[in-house]
What we know:
It holds the Pfam family Methyltransf_25. The protein is of the alpha/beta class. It has helices at about 30-45, 45-60, 75-85, 100-110, 150-160, 180-195, 200-210, 220-230, and strands spanning about 65-70, 90-95, 120-125, 135-140, 160-175, 235-240, 245-250.
Amino acid sequence: MSSKQQTPPEQVTDRLFATERNPEDFRFDASVARVFPDMIRRSVPGYTTIIPMIEVITEQYVQPGTHCYDLGCSLGASTLAMRHGIHHDDCVLVGVDNSSAMLERCSHYIALDDHDLPVTLRCEDILTTELSNASVTTLNFTLQFVPPEQRPGLMRRIADATLPGGVLILSEKIRFESEQEQETQTRLHHEFKRANGYSDLEISQKRAAIEKVLLPETLLEHRQRLLAAGFDQVVVWYQCFNFVSMLAIKSPSTNQ
């Protein structure tokens, strides 16, 4: 598809929680997809740093003739970062999301991107989508929406699909074992949102909507699960307040 024939999807300011509304669980529907770029930029500290670094990490770990996955790709920011970090024509890049509204807009951004590597988009559940021959996999603020009892199985599937020398980039909102630290980090996160123009009402209502579907865990829980799944090293390469990004690495000497 020629980029000249593509019209970028409309991007608007996130005002979903600006007025009083009935409490309901957060869903990645068309209304969220429409404001998602603005929402995540103003809600997730460090997001604009993490995305370009995914390109850097992908470039370091991608292997020729392998698959690269963005699981929970939403509008494709991580997918495009991975795309620009892949310099092997024989690699296969796959974005997976279970929201058709997200993928519809994602396809527009991919078509507008100036890069020749094809991207395959799957409207599937990341818990059951096929994974194999992977050198780089990204879960960018996705695992936190997976039910906790299903997270170990997903990590094992990813680790089993990852080749020696391959990696998983895992970005997550975390919670802290210390109640005092949790309160401090939460307060700083809310101040970050206020600095980005969110009102107290918006912060409160979004928190109420998302708290039943976004279930954060501690760094220790993530590290133990990743090691148990079959990764050999877990490195925290970025943290800002209660948001972190980790690199789970398969040793080049690991036997498959």
